[in-house]
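Form 7-S
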Amino acid sequence: MSAVQGAGQRTAVFPGSFDPPTYGHLDLLDRALDLFGSVVIAIGKNSDKRSLFEVEERIALLEACVTPGAQVKVRSFDGLLVDWCRREGLGPIVRGVRNGLDFEYERAMALHNRTMAPEVDTVFLMPRAEHSFTSSSLLREIVRAGGDARPWLPAPVLAAMHEKASRG
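Output:
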C-alpha cells in the first residue's frame, strides 16, 4: 500500500489527561480531524495522578464540547497506550507540542512507543499561537483563584470547574 492510498483511512488517537479540556485541545482535535477524518480521544486512567475531574466526567465534558456529527469518540484506557492502540486497531497517535520541552518529552515517548509497536506511529502538531502557552494545570489555578478563564476554556468545562470550586 502506498502512502497516498493509506492517507486518511486510519482513525487517529489523541491521548491525554484532558483535566480539564481546553480550547487548545479542541484546536488540535479539529486539526487531527482535518488530517485523518476520524479521531478517538483517549483518556488514560492513572490512579497515581490527582485529578480535578474523574475520567467519566472528562469523557462527558469532551463529548459536550465536540461538534455534533463529528467523527470523534471519547474513550478511556488502562495500561500502555500503544498496547491499547494495537488491540483496538487504532493509530497514529496525535500529540500536541507547545515548546521545546514538550517536544523532547514527546519525542522520547514516541521513540519508545515505536520500538514497542512499530505499526503505531506518532504525529506531532503545533498548537495555534493563541494556545501555545495554555496548560490545564495553570487553568485550574486561575479558576481556583477566581480568575477569568473564558479565553481558554469551553463554556461546559468552565461551568463544571466553577461547580467543583463552589463545593470546595
